[in-house]
Amino acid sequence: MTTAMARAAGRRAEETGYAARIGHVSKSFAGPAGPAGPQLVLDDITLDVAPGEFVGLLGASGCGKSTLLSLVAGLDRPSAGTIETPGGRPALMFQEHALFPWLTAGKNIELALRLRRVAKADRRTRAEELLGLVRLNGAYGKRVHELSGGMRQRVALARALAQDSRLLLMDEPFAALDAITRDVLHDELTRIWREENLSVLFVTHNVREAVRLAQRVVLLSARPGRVAREWTVDIPHPRRIEDPDVAELAVEITGQLREEIRRHGRH
């Protein structure tokens, strides 16, 4: 996608009033042969993500959070319902950095640019700009093994941003990091989201992380995943993970999450 096409896609999202629209989506997977039949993972999910909105998606293990993200990304199709992303194909960032170890940090980013058919002469400049955006100036020529865990996730974020999508899907991207590194990357993600006016759908198991980052938190029930409850997070930025308001809302959401787990007998 060219820059002009990306801008046009962004305008389409603004005009429609949503960056992603999930309408009555269900997803089943074929199970073992027997009377149980297909396994229903998601059941009648309806959710909009507004342009520029940061939505946190919570739920017990196995409730279908990652499945929903894959559907929005276009990696799979729903069994029922519709998904619309008027701004074009979303960018997806996984829990694992998924960088190619035989490529440098810069070349990993350039791969995404190449797939977008960015001219070869422009790729390095754009890759270095994106490394600067995630505050990894000078890391273009570094190999993956030379980077810390936090640095690798910054490169993975830069590679996702290289897709030039206004909708960023993130599947527990900081789960494997230590608390201090995760805290720093929370600040960086918040800065980039606001500077770049992105829409973000962020999957996490960490309730405080969701409250610290998101404008809205959506809780899915245990399998099959349904929208159990939503919270608007009115806490002003900058937020800290240890802020009393963050902690108070996190306690409320955690209580509801535990109730969902107890109700459905999931651990």
Automatic annotation (TrEMBL):
Keywords: ATP-binding, Nucleotide-binding, Transport. SMART domains: AAA. PROSITE patterns: ABC_TRANSPORTER_1, ABC_TRANSPORTER_2. Residues 20-249 form the ABC transporter domain. InterPro entries: AAA+_ATPase (IPR003593), ABC_transporter-like_ATP-bd (IPR003439), ABC_transporter-like_CS (IPR017871), ABC_transporter_ATP-bind (IPR050166), P-loop_NTPase (IPR027417). GO terms for molecular function: ATP binding; ATP hydrolysis activity. It holds the Pfam family ABC_tran. It comes from the Bacteria. PANTHER family: ALIPHATIC SULFONATES IMPORT ATP-BINDING PROTEIN SSUB, TAURINE IMPORT ATP-BINDING PROTEIN-RELATED. This is Transporter. It comes from Streptomyces sp. SoC090715LN-17.
